[in-house]
Amino acid sequence: MHKLLTFHNEKLLRQALTHRSYVNEHPGEAEQNERLEFLGDAILNFLSGEYLYKRHPEKEEDELTRRRSALVDEKQLAKFAIEVGLDFRMRLGQGAIRDGGFQNPNLLSSTFEAVLGAYYLDNNSNIEVVRTIVEPLFDSVSEKIVVSRSNVDSKNRFQEWVQSSGNTNPPKYVTKQIGGQSHTPVFESDVFEVVNGVEILRGTGQGRNKKEAEKDAAENALAKLKKRGL
């Protein structure tokens, strides 16, 4: 059994493995794992950021941010979840299981974050203990894979999400200068998903030029979608 599944408090691990679909079908179950997922996500972002900061002193902020996004994206976290043996230990409702929940990247990645948050609490909020768990996982990811994923523009990734939902309309960006001087302007961009002629605001971003603002808006939209499990 992987060390990440070894707990002093088994109830905490049980909660981390419990998806809300299971609680919906078992009203007597105490808690699902979304609060732990929130905590694990924060811990993972810190540790991955520190990991990349130390290993790539030559990289600037933008590149480090892209690499962090690639290192802890949904697809990669799902692989980590399977690697440590979380897949068939997830506690899912029957509907989620029928829909292929044990292989669902979103459920796998969310559960991994929840278990990580629970492991942190189970070890008296000792970040060093968690670091010994996640750094070997980070080390296992090929540099080639990280670079390849980090080079995928956030605007392209958001458009891919829109298309995956069956929407053939491209995202709409509304971008304008909101401040700054002529030589140091500040732009703001809103990105909308257009569904049946209706514009749905998905994200907002800012940047030093239109391109940066639109990219930031797409990243904001993707982050919101992840939080909603979409």
Structure write-up:
The protein is 56% helix and 13% strand. By secondary structure, the protein is α+β, with helices and mostly antiparallel strands. A three-stranded antiparallel sheet has the order 1-2-3, covered by helices on one side. A hairpin with a 4-residue loop joins strand 1 and strand 2. Helix 3 (34-55) packs across helix 7 (105-122), helix 3 (34-55) crosses helix 8 (127-139) and helix 5 (74-83) crosses helix 7. The protein is globular and about 60 Å long. The relative contact order is 0.12. InterPro entries: dsRBD_dom, RNase_III, RNase_III_dom, RNase_III_sf. This is Ribonuclease 3. Residues 5-124 form the RNase III domain. One of its GO terms (molecular function) is ribonuclease III activity.
What's this model, at a glance?
By secondary structure, the chain is of the alpha+beta class.
Number of strands: 3
Strand arrangement within the widest β-sheet reads: 1-2-3
Biggest pleated sheet: 3 strands, antiparallel
Radius of gyration: 19 Å
Counted by DSSP, the helix tally is 11
Q: What's the N-to-C terminus distance?
A: 30 Å
Poorly predicted tracts of residues? none
The average pLDDT is: 87
Global geometry: globular
* Secondary-structure element order, N to C: HHHHHHHHHHEEEH
Estimated share of beta-strand residues: 5-15%
* Class per helix and strand makeup: alpha+beta
Report helical residue fraction: 55-70%
Secondary structure blueprint with pairings:
Layout: H1 10-16, H2 20-25, H3 34-55, H4 61-71, H5 74-83, H6 94-98, H7 105-122, H8 127-139, H9 143-150, H10 154-164, E1 172-180, E2 185-195, E3 198-207, H11 210-227
Antiparallel strand pairs: 1-2, 2-3
Helix pairs in contact: 1-7, 3-4, 3-7, 3-8, 4-9, 5-7, 10-11
